[in-house]
Amino acid sequence: MAGSAGLAWRRGRRSFSPTRKRLKPLRTVVAWRGRAEWDQVMVGLYCGDSRLQQEALDRVSAWKSRYGPKMPLAVDCTAELIRCKVLDSSGRLKSHELILSYGLALVRFVNLITERKQKMVSIPLRKLAIEVDIPIWVVDLRHELTHGKLPRLALCRKGCDVVLDWLRKTYWSRQLGNNLCEESEEEDEEEEQEEMEANTELDSDTWEVQTPQHEVCQKHKEFHGRCP
């Protein structure tokens, strides 16, 4: 009995050891390596120079390969629309091919942005568009495209410009005031290694590890209803 009590006392003392590592809060990992890279891509996408836009698109593709389906919808939609503009300026596609390219990107944008607003009872897209401040005629353009009626190329170009401006104001510009607090992949690997080492030292009979909540960044709240 005395031996058991002594063992329990020694185990209890471990919790007060000043040298024991404290588990650091888990952090969300994003695809970009830092604020500078994110800013560079944003400027590249909206600069109007096809060469710089293509470089930014290549960087977004790299983000998507790392981040997969967790890529923010706003980034994904912006890239698709900018890609249409790059193809348009290249002169490689015919008019009807450009209409289809713009149309696919616009339809996907409207569907993705309004989908998260849908409830158990279906809500008309026009009403949802008003709620998120998307011009009604963009929704009408989406309706024409999904029902096989090809609009004029000029209207598709205008729709692309309007939606890109909406994305810039609603998503990209708002991030300028945020600190993009997520860590890069390299920093996260160090955090994970430290956490694994700390977990190895824990005695499962005595310790109850509490996992802190993830830090939430505003940009993921913008187009995701949850933390990635």
From TrEMBL:
InterPro entries, alphabetized: Las1
Gene Ontology terms: cellular component = Las1 complex; preribosome, large subunit precursor
Enumerate the residue ranges of region (Disordered): 181-208
One annotated GO molecular function is: endonuclease activity
Instruction: Name any one Pfam family assigned in the record.
Output: Las1
Which terms does the UniProt entry file under GO BP? maturation of 5.8S rRNA; maturation of LSU-rRNA
Record protein name field: LAS1-like protein
Q: Which organism is it from?
A: Pavo cristatus
